[in-house]
Every structure is written in C-alpha cells, then in structure tokens.
Batch of 3 targets.
Target 1
Amino acid sequence: MSVSKHTKTLLMAFGAALALAGCGNGADKVVSPGEGAFPPAPPTTPPPTTPPPTTPPPTGGPAADCPTGLANVGTVANGTLRACQLPNLITGNLVLRKLAGTIYVINGQVNVGEDLGGDATKPIAGRQAGILTIEPGVKLFGSAGADSLVINRGSQIYAEGSSTDPIIFTSRASVEGQTNIDSMGQWGGLVILGRAPISACPGSTVSGTPECQAAIEGISNVFYGGNAPGDNSGRLRYVRVMYSGFQVSPDNELNGISFGGVGSATTVDHIQVHNSSDDGIEIFGGSVNLRYVVLTGNDDDSLDTDTGWSGAAQFGIVIQRAGGGDRGFEWSAIRRTPYSTPKVSNFTLVLRENGGAGIMLNQGTQATIINSVVSRPTGSKELLAIQDTDTKGTFQSVYFSGAKAFLDTRAETDFKAGTNNSVGASTLTNTFVNGANENAVPAFSGTTGVSPFFQSVSYIGAVRNSSDTWWQGWTCGLTADTACR
C-alpha cells in the first residue's frame, strides 16, 4: 500500500460513500432475512448460551435446515453441507454453533451492530450494538468481493477456536475444492472497527477525541477511531482467513483482516491470513496487540500499518509464495503526530525472490523491531528501506540474511545503531525454524520495557527449534502435509 493511498483515504473520510460496484454474483440477489431478529444486549460481555436448534443434525450429509434467524440458501460442496446465510445486520446476540452438515454464508456486507460513533462514553442515540459469537470449528464463506464481515464501533466478535478446531473464514471456491496455490481475492474479508485513537484526523480535529475518525478502506461509509485506547472489540483466537481481499477501486481494497481503531482490550492471538489478494493484515491506528500470527502467500504486504498504530505484535511467521507478495512489513502514517509506533518481537520473515523490500518504513513511523529474523533465500532486493526523515527504525537483536541488506546508508545506519544486529548466512530449517546462526544471536533482554505486552524470551525469531510448536494444528500451508483447502 502506498503513502498516497492513505492521503486519499483521509480526504474521502467525510466525502461521498465508496461504491462497491460490479462485485456481486448471483448470490448477491438472495435476500437475507432475520435482520434485527435477535434481542438487544449491551456489547460488554460474551453472550449467554442459547438453546440448540430445533431440528437435530443429521448423522451424515447436509443438515435438514438452518438455525432460527439464518436463511437456508441451499447446499454446497456437492450437496454435503447446508448453507445458512447470516443476516445483513446483527444486533443483540447471535451465536454460530458448530453443527453437523452446516456451513455459514457471508453474503454482501454483514454488519455486526450499527456504528455507535467514536465517543465510548456517549454512543449515538437510537443505534443498536451487536455481539457475534462463533464456536470452535465453525466454517464461514463468501462468494464475491462484496462479501465481508464488519464489526462496527461499539460491537464485538467472539471468534474463539482451538488448536485442533480453528474457526475458518474462506471462499466458496475453497469449500468446493476449486482453489490452488495462487488462488486469492475470492471474497472480501474481515473488518474490525473500534474507538481507539488514530492519527488520520480530518481538518483541525485532535487525535484521541470522538471527532478524530476516518473512513475505513474497502467499505462504504463506515468509520473508525475515537477516544477509547482501551476499547474492546472482542476476541479472535485460533482463526484462519483464506482467499480474501478485493479491490473496490484503485488504492481502495479489502484485506484479509483490517483492524481500524481497535483498542488494547481486544484479544487477538493465533490468527492466520492465507492468500489475500491485498495485505494479509492491515492495522489502521488504534492500540490493539497481536500474538502468534501467521501470514502466508499474501499478494501485497503481509503486515501493513497506518494512521498511528501504537500496539505491539509478538511471535509471527511471514512467508511469501513464489508467485506473489510485495513487502513483508510496510509501516506508514500521515506526517502528523501521533506518529505510528509499531513494535514487533520474535518475527521470522521469509521473502520471495522478486518481492519488494523486506521491511519498508514509510513516512511518520517510529518503529521498533527486536529479536527477529529476515531472510531472502534468493534474489537481490533489499531487506530494509527507510522512507524519510519523519521515520526511524530501532533494531535490537535482529538477524538479516540475503544478498542485499539495505537500500541505502540511512537504513544501514539505523540498523547498526542497535545492539546484537547482524547480517549473515541463513541456517533456517524447514523454511522458518531457527538454525545455528539464528540461535547464536543473543536475545534482547529489554522486551518488556519496549512493551508490557511482550513476553520475555531467550531467543530471536518466531520458532526457536523443532520443539517449538505453537503454529501446529490450527494453521495450513506451513508444511507439505497441511495444504490449505
């Protein structure tokens, strides 16, 4: 994502709504019943347990019908799964249960709650919040670029899978077994919006106030930002998003997961984005923290940050596929305070031969990268580029391996100013597991001083050795026997 794109986004924040034109298919014509069919409840705690569906699941084949409030739109996967379509507006509580022979459908823009505005102490009168809870093992799909799940400001999602039963957001083509290693852009994506401060303030408004808000990319007339750094948009745990991403218009795209103004009380851990046609994850401002992140095969940047993100991320695997992928990290902000202050620890980036800079620090960014590994096994593109004088990188215990480490002396100076940073040969095994050279680098001991979110560790990189298995079971595509489907 270029800097010019974010300038355009800011200028459009209170302008005309973005059009999602020409994205639909036949499924877009299906009316989604059940809007407003769920009892209202404040979005502060997970919803209570709801009774099971009245129709018991069959012992094999598709379920006979869908739970109350969801539309039965037929079957998919050669008639083996009942397709149950979500309403376009979810208010109150909705629980998506793991039911035999059932899969859930995202058709068009599915909103969880109405936008309550940027003031956490005074929600917009007359609007309703929503809570969406998704049980472990549930699978949802979209069929077209306009199909997206949007969690609006003041509402929450509780999508909590497990290491053996992750929650999967994917495309219909994937459900039908019609994807391959380069499939992408087959539905929209997941968008989570909160009321934490951002830097993309319109006019003379001030960051951290309800008036400092911006329109999120890829969605029509939907906003993020506000006055609550500790805002809570719910929990994402053991979640996989596949084959998403869609270009609504030039420089205006949906990503795998977009976080806009999401606050620090939101829990995000054990998440994978695979083969997004734009960025894997893009974080627009806010203070959300992430832990245990896997980004594979994404066609633009794997982790993109913008508009004043002040959070942290620890333990991440980034692997580009041979056929696509630009930058591993692209971090930027508008040239105004507060600058973006992204902080990452224990990431391993494995870059393709013909991709962009491994790490691009763009304008208005004061970044900290510690205990990490960046490797480009083949190719000559630089591993680190720094955009301008508003931008600075702080590096501690970072190991680079590749034919060209730095774009210029500016990047080299920032890198060498830190402690225990070095450039050498890669000894990574099984693509992303530390070898002798990586484990020889002393770990930076001050991680918790950089961010209280960070755990103290004694090694660099995402995966210390073959016994370090946090990524196993819930991910796909990292090993030959776990192909993404």
Note: The chain has five helices and 30 strands.
Target 2
Amino acid sequence: MGKYLDPRADLTFKKVFGEHKNLVISLLNALLPLKDDERVESIEYWPAEKIPKRTQVEKDSIVDVCCRDNKNREFIVEMQMTWTESFKKRVLLNASKAYVAQSEAGGVYDTLQPVYALNFVNEIFMKDVDDYYHYFHLVHDKYTDKVIDGLHLVFVELKKFKPQTFTEKKMQVLWLRFLTEITDKTLEAPAELLENPEVSEALKILEIGAYSPGEMRAYDKFWDYISRQKTIVNDIYREAEKAVAEANAKAEKANAKVEKLMQDKLDTARKLKAMNVMTTEQIAEATGLTAEEIGGL
C-alpha cells in the first residue's frame, strides 16, 4: 500500500470534489469548454433529494458530484468505472432531466440555464479515434457557429490520456494526471502535482492516514465490486464473441454447401448442353437453372 488512495473510487472522488467547492470549481473550469467570461466562480452542491436515482449497478460503479453555480448553470460530474453504450443515453437523460427541472409550471423559457455533464470514463469506448476528449452539444449541421445553448456533454477517456506540456491547458493536464497517475500504490506524488495549490490540496485529502477503518472497508468494497463487475462484463463479451464465431462458422459452411450445389448444377448443365440432346428448357427443368444461366455456359 502506498501513501495515497485512488481518487477514482466512490469514497475518495466524493471527498475531493463533493466536499471541497474550490476543487470542483477548478476541475470544471479546467475540463469544460468554457470561455473566459463563462468560467465558474462559485457553486452550491445539489441537495440529496435532487440527485438522479440509480440502479444498484449504477450506485456501485458510477461516482457523481452535482452542483449549481452562481449563474444557475447545472453541473453533473461523473466517474464511470465500467462502460456500456447505454451509458451515453443515461447521461443524456440525466442532463435532460436537470434541464427540464429548472422549468416550473407557467415559467419563462428564457430563464433556463445550460446543463453540463462532465464524464470521466475509465475505459476506452471510442476505439476508432485517438482523441481522449469528446464534446457533444446542439450545433447546426451546416453552420457550425449556430448553437442552441442547452445541453453540453463531455466524455473524457482516461486511458487514452497522455501527459503533455501545453500552458493553455495546464490545469486540465494536472487534473487528468491526478486522476490517472495517483493510485493506492503511489509512494510519492509527482512534483508538478505537489507544486500546484489545488492539486496538492486534493492529494492531501487522499492520504491514507486521513481515513477511518470503516472508510477503508468501504474503499476496498468499491474496488472489489468493480473487479467483479468487469469480470462479469468480460465473460459476457467472451460468450458473445464465441457465439458470433460459431454462427459465422455455420454460415460459412452453409454458404459453401450452397456454392457447391450451384457449381454441381452448372457442371451438369454444361455437360448436357455439350451432349446436344436436350433443349435449354429441358436442361433448365432438370437442373433448376434459368435459361439465362444456361445460355451463358
């Protein structure tokens, strides 16, 4: 065991970003596509009753922090440890619910504020692209400067992230390094992380000595569940791949039989045609071929 706990776990992620407003503000400003005059200045966490309902699987595998800023914009921050394609729709649904919830009966539409869903994904789900950062929003398909400001969905594939040095996104790099490089095997945090006041504060929160025995049991239970969940998902994928392979093999055999049968018919028709003892119509009736197919022999 190292000096810190892993920040991606339910317990630690919520302690860092769900209990320290300055840290979640820094994270939002670093990872969201906000212009300088759109930066988050202050936030309030959602009350417990407003947090989206979760299935048992989602409760155990998805970590979330929800808040609203001084401009009444809504922010949903999630750490998704396992991935299925349906999660994208769930993210859209929860962001949509947060957007709709702003409107009361008889309310004015122009008071509705945008909702941002920031999703850290601990798996690669876009295998055909190299980028780790994916931003989805409502934009005109031809005139891309025409945007409807409502729902903003950001997905960050943590396993694709590679540290780089670029000053314009320094805090984004530091926070992603914090989420990808710090684990419960880390003995000493990188100097670049310790030198930044906000990330250094987050690292202090992760120090193992700050956690009670009960919290450590909850931490271990979380990772045990993730391991079991990934094993189940991998088993399902392996079984599915096996079933597809078997189906493809059967299909290939069936196609081979059809091709051989067709070739036999053509060979028979060719021989009958060469013997010149039957008409094309008779050969067609005998072999099941069409007159056009026989004529082409």
Note: The radius of gyration is 29 Å.
Target 3
Amino acid sequence: MILVIGGLGSIGSHTARALLDLGESVVVTAHRSSGLPEHLAAEPGRIVVEPLDTNDREAVLDIGRRHEITGIVHLAAARHDLPDPIEYLRTDTSGLLNVLEAARAWGVRRCAVASTIAVYAGVDEVPWREDAALPVVAPHQIPVFKRTAELFAALAGDSAGFETVSLRIGTIWGPLGLPDNPFFALPRLLSAAVWGEDADLTPPRPPAYAQDATDLCYVKDCGRAIALLMVAEHLNHRVYNISSGRLVPYSEVVAVINATVPGAGIVLPEGRDPGRPTDNHLDIGRLRQDTGFEPEYNVERAVPDYTDWLRRHDR
C-alpha cells in the first residue's frame, strides 16, 4: 500500500485517486477532516483513512505496524499563514523527520516529499529546470522549509537505502483547493464568478492583470504526475518539477471563465502588474521522460471541470 500523508487535501486526494486508477491500494491520513471526498468515496477495501498528526512520532510509526506500506507521499504541511516562522519551521520539520524515520523503519521502496516552485526564487533561467543552482535566499517560510526538506530527504534516504523524490510543485488549482488563494488570483476570479460574488482583489489579495502569466497546473494533472512517479519502475533523478510545463496568461483563463460562467463579465486591467516579478514556469522534461506524463487538463478543460465542482459544493 502507498501512504499519502495529507491525503484528504486537494493535491493529496487527487494523488490518491490517481494511485487507485493505477491499481494501487492507498492509506490516506486525516488531520483536520476525516470525510472522504466524492472522488475517493466509491473505493471500499482499496482505501483506508487514518487520523494522524505528523508531529506525533508514535502515531506515525504505528501506521506501518497495521498496514504494509511500500511507499510514502508526504504532502502534509503546517498552515501557510502561521505568523511565527519558528513555529512553522518547527512543526513541519518535526513532521518530516517522523515521516523519514517511518520510511526507514518500514523499509519502503520510495518516499516522495512535497517541495515547491518557490525554491526557484532568484533563479533567472527560463524555464526553471531541476538542475538550476538555487541561490541562498529566504523570501518566505515555505520555500525555506521546502528547500531544506529536499536535503533532509536526500540525506535520510541515502543513509537508510530508500529512494527519495522531491516534488517541486507548480501553481496548482482545482477541487478542494483554496477558492480565495492568497498567492494567485485565478481561483478567486472563478469562484466569485460561479457564486455570484464580487471578486474583490484589493490587498492583501494578489492583483490580476491581463498580461500576467503563471505556471498553472490543474490538480488532477498534478495528482497523476505524483502517482506516476511513485509507481515508475525506475527513476533517473530525485528532484522533479510537477506542472503543465507552460506559462499560462491570465487573459487566457479569464476568457474561458467568461465563456463558461454566464454573466461573469470579468475584465482585467491591461498590461502587467507593475510589482510582479518576471513570469516563469517549470520545465517538466524529466517528468515526461521518466514517467510518460502529459497534461490532460488545458484551460479549456480545467475551467468547466472546476466550475462544475464549485457549483456543487458549499463555499
């Protein structure tokens, strides 16, 4: 069985779904909620939900005493908005170390750990590739921890003899994601249109201009990419970018939202956000070569799919 820690969240649940589709059985952990989302609910006997706080070492290790875990996908994280960076780093570091200890104790084949596109802050290369030299910068607590997590995982795996994979995950949106995302405006624009609300992108919400562009990946593609990395017979690397492999203009997304949601009528200011860094995206050549991954959800398919989900779920 493959253990997906944080498996009831947006990325985690879609990773679990993709693993099930590939014939795997799955244990997913629940911290803040325990109900299975609809895309996992119809799998009796193939999926198990375990309550877990990753900071509880014994609880983490106990999962492997009750289930035959052959691989781990670690996606759980502290709240992104914790105001104290020391508390954030302590929480996530403790959880990560407990997971790596479990991987060693259980003798798993492969352990994947979530990283982020934000580790490329300060890299001028276009597009961003996994072999880029990463500057030593500390723009935010999330990329600081994620870059460190990559090193922790590599060291632990090399020492104990299990494979580690660091997942540099791009800008993800879709079902169970934050409809009012603090890092990019597109989820807010779509959810407000679907629910008939004012999008209101005044600070602290991020702005949106027509020529802004982002490394946009639909969560179902993200989950499938992670699942393919977990089941691949052989991997040539231990760091992989996870995304669509292209830069998506905000104007392209808004045009599809306006065509999908009657009366949306979203109009973005022309040009680029003057305070926005240069737009860039992740190269996914490694992912393609080692797993055969190709994105299935372009903007024209993703927006209607997410719209349908938002219409069927409460705010």
Note: Residues 222 and 242 are 6 Å apart (CA to CA).
